Amino acid sequence: xxxxxxxxxxxxxxxxxxxxxxxxxxxxxxxxxxxxxxxxxxxxxxxxxxxxxxxxxxxxxxxxxxxxxxxxxxxxxxxxxxxxxxxxxxxxxxxxxxxxxxxxxxxxxxxxxxxxxxxxxxxxxxxxxxxxxxxxxxxxxxxxxxxxxxxxxxxxxxxxxxxxxxxxxxxxxxxxxxxxxxxxxxxxxxxxxxxxxxxxxxxxxxxxxxxxxxxxxxxxxxxxxxxxxxxxxxxxxxxxxxxxxxxxxxxxxxxxxxxxxxxxx
Length: 265
Ligand SMILES: C[S@@+](CC[C@H](N)C(=O)[O-])C[C@H]1O[C@@H](n2cnc3c(N)ncnc32)[C@H](O)[C@@H]1O
Fold this sequence. Notes:
Bound molecules: S-adenosylmethionine
Distance between the termini: 23 Å
Strand order of the largest sheet: 5-4-3-6-7-9-8-10
Oligomer: single chain
Number of domains: 1
Order of helices and strands: HHHEEHHEHEHEHEHEHEEE
Radius of gyration: 18 Å
Largest sheet: 8 strands, mixed
CATH topology: Rossmann fold
Number of helices: 10
CATH superfamily: Vaccinia Virus protein VP39
CATH class: Alpha Beta
């Protein structure tokens, strides 16, 4: 994992070199449309407040739970006994990015969504409420965390979420053998190089031309930087958008020459 200093330096580099986020000089109509209608859509959708209400509850929950440690996701807490509010403060995607996921699903309307890394279900709730016709399959290893997510889904009366508990190494292949096609994948757990690349390859095998991948924390560590470089230059990848804290990947062969954008967000 990069130190806070390294990460800040990288973030400044990103900000200085990225396109300004208004779409000027972006010669891809698809990316221009994405910037205009998805990235910069500043509508305050009603569900934002509802879901953020659940996040607030998690952030003030002082219960201590026993957590199995999966992957390299948590940079702050290493012990097995954890306070809910500490997990909520350190591992959930901030609302800016969770709401971007919402807008992407709302706009591109994927029918079959996968999330690797449910935690308390905040990003899952955004994915679910963005398109109630879609099915969101969300995977979480830690049973105590998964059970809190389940309660949150019930509290929000979400009917289109399937929560699968277990190590991604087992649950992902099982799930993919059942659902066959996946249209949107948010990879937000086990931030290490080889597992990240393995998930990408497994997901690719069940993808269509319009499947969208969102990778979390692509600059979080040397390993994640390497994984991101390999994903960018993978033979299947035709378009990437680097927003620093997430990387978005498109594999549509209609984008004939692979293009890579870094955009301020
Ligand atoms: C960063 S959190 C997910 C946050 C959530 N997407 C959000 O933004 O609301 C990552 C989660 O992935 C789980 N995880 C990490 N590696 C895993 C693995 N190999 N198998 C199953 N779960 C794993 C962790 O237990 C953790 O709860």
